[in-house]
């Protein structure tokens, strides 16, 4: 897949770009609804003998337009979005630098400069796609703005339990601990990539060594609790059980949520290495135990439940 980054204005010569069928949207999460839209563009590309493309934006429009104060939390920070779109088999990815100048283009200017001007000859987008200043352009206005220069397909809503599959919905599920439901809308388990940091080394003393994972990318993170997970280290997936939270039993008053995974059948020294957590099922809330013995008994149970969930041996 060729990645083409563009600003505003852009200086691409339309005649040097292949004719593409492109899917348009922000695509955080590359969820099943997004896959339907991208799949539609790829199918039409095949039928019409075009290259397939996706057009997305960076950073998030809400961050640029000042609708959210903090950094926008993502299901898939940009590198992961790129890799997932590539895995779908898309030929070209246009990433437009979303600036206030770009956002102030009228719908017609956006269409002229970023659709017709990029040699996109077919557009696939969802029923609720909007474009141009204040999102004034919609799939109803697209025929008018197209000037007859490209074809278009409106992809119908993909819903689950009568609710639209959306990035917003999935972010809500993850931050409420419903990672198994998020899996059903993403079409794959939710993953977050981080680095193994030094913890307090208390885990070893209680018989359950843990890897303390720090996430530097702006991920939506699961709520406090204990989760059945898989962890990828040096290219190998392991099963594990992860505690998310503040470890109230130790009354350490830590301000930051920690992510500690006890990895099954694993003893290597991995500080500073990359670790990707694949979030499966939340098993329980994080609790304050009266003593270490109670905590240890509970962690043994958590391990057993995790093993049962994955259908593996619990030793
Ligand atoms: C599966 C699992 C469940 C845990 N559940 C809790 C809990 O409910 N409450 C709590 O205070 N700590 C809980 N812990 C966190 C332990 O307190 C933590 O692993 C210990 O403090 C070691 O941390 P350290 O290696 O950073 O020193 C859990 C840890 C694991 C691995
Ligand atoms: N469930 C869905 N069914 C059909 N099309 C969808 C669906 N979800 C998104 N799309 C389309 O996919 C493209 C990307 O959408 P967008 O990035 O806005 O995702 P979203 O999940 O709708 O996000 P948000 O929750 O922020 O509204 C758009 O063309 C949009 O219309």
Automatic annotation (TrEMBL):
GO terms for biological process: FAD biosynthetic process; FMN biosynthetic process; riboflavin biosynthetic process. It catalyses: FMN + ATP + H(+) = FAD + diphosphate; riboflavin + ATP = FMN + ADP + H(+). Gene3D superfamilies: HUPs, Riboflavin kinase-like. Pathway: Cofactor biosynthesis; FAD biosynthesis; FAD from FMN: step 1/1; Cofactor biosynthesis; FMN biosynthesis; FMN from riboflavin (ATP route): step 1/1. CDD domains: FAD_synthetase_N. Residues 185-311 form the Riboflavin kinase domain. Keywords: ATP-binding, FAD, Flavoprotein, FMN, Kinase, Multifunctional enzyme, Nucleotide-binding, Nucleotidyltransferase, Transferase. It comes from the Bacteria. Its EC number is 2.7.1.26, 2.7.7.2. The keyword Ubl conjugation does not apply. GO terms for molecular function: ATP binding; FMN adenylyltransferase activity; riboflavin kinase activity. InterPro entries: FAD_synthase (IPR015864), Riboflavin_kinase (IPR023468), Riboflavin_kinase_bac (IPR002606), Riboflavin_kinase_bac/euk (IPR015865), Riboflavin_kinase_dom_sf (IPR023465), Rossmann-like_a/b/a_fold (IPR014729). NCBIfam families: PRK05627.1-4, ribF. Belongs to the ribF family. This is Riboflavin biosynthesis protein.
